[in-house]
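Justification of computing resources. Each target in the renewal requires a structure prediction run like the one illustrated here; the chain below, 84 residues long, is used simply to show the kind of job we budget for.
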Amino acid sequence: MSFKIAFKKSVARDLKRIDKIQSEKILSKIDEELPGKAEFFPILSGKFSGLRKFRVGDYRVIYSIIGDTVLILRISHRREAYRK
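Resulting structure tokens:
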């Protein structure tokens, strides 16, 4: 199944905190892999129950699958990804 990719508005703020080269790499990986494989990445538990994670180097993309859309909720460094 092919998914559409949508971004929460706060993701723009997350990307501004990451250097430009890394953010371009993350966005290209999202475009390459998430539309076709979104349902195969790990499901989180605990307070993030039901959300999924996608790993790009030291960064984590936290997302949710809603129908045929992948909603990107957060992009951050792995040490900060699960704090909020």
